[in-house]
Protein: Anti-FecI sigma factor, FecR
Amino acid sequence: MYPNFKILPEKNKIDLKARIAESIALEKQRARRKRLRTISWSAAAVLCLGLGITIVLKQEQKEISPIEQFANNNKTSGSSFEKSNQVQLVLSDKEAVNVSDSTTIAYDASGNKISVNNKQIKQKNSLEPQYNTVLVPYGKRAQLSLADGTQVWLNSGSKLIYPTTFDGSSREVFLEGEGIFDVAHNASKPFYVKAANNYSVRVLGTLFNVSCYAKDAKVSTALLRGKVQVSYAKKGLFSSDTLQTILKPGTIASLDKKRETIKTTAQNVEPLFSWRKGYYEFSQEKLPLVLDKLTRYYNVDFVMNKKVSSGETYSGAFKLNDDLDKVVKTLEATTGFEFVYDAETRKITIN
Structure:
């Protein structure tokens, strides 16, 4: 029921109006406080979210190992070594040493002495980790003996970053391209091969092949002997998923970079290790796969003008010391197709 101002005395009217005005003012003050509380909670939520993002970023940064940080800060342009004619050893002080063919880069147990080109190079002692780099151009291969006794073979167009000595609780190297590792057993110091795209292989003592060329759609690890664990940390600020799989001898793990999935298959992996002995071996492989391997090693492009049967496979071997002309003639004799090589464009057309 609303008050009838006409029948109230003047004094009561003034009194009632004052109380109504006070009530309205109080209600407005409450509304303002409510709005302020809402804004404060919103600001706090945004602040917490910001802090959360900062924490996530810091955690991700902590997960990057020192050798990965070094690799990110010392990226090498492909043209700077892939078009070279010689393998290069880049020392921690940036000095570059050309490595002769069929030479093994060998470190002593201290990591301070390097045997290369029938000479010895001495590196200065340092309290900080020292990282050396081997760059392998197209058409070349390299072999290393690391300070812990691990043997490494690097294929054409590859790059390996490694410490001169393994002083920490683990042994880590960083690979771009393709490498075969025969790891010296040390149960207290697991060995890791790190690669781009948050990919790594953990091993205690084994013989395996890792292929992680930047241009390839997949990263693969093939195990010949021993046992390895393959890991891939999915990309994305809020993604904490890590894919893992353990390989047994005679299996290959393939990471699809685009789909972020790992597939494991069992097959004869022996041919994947043949290049360390100086030849490419193929056993019932389809022609495109054979050409992919030759494309990478000789830095050429194959242009298919001929339709190839999807079910047809090829077996054989190529000596890696053979020049490209001899390889082309071998392909013609094996497939029955005509291969036309243009040396200027480095293209081989298949008719």
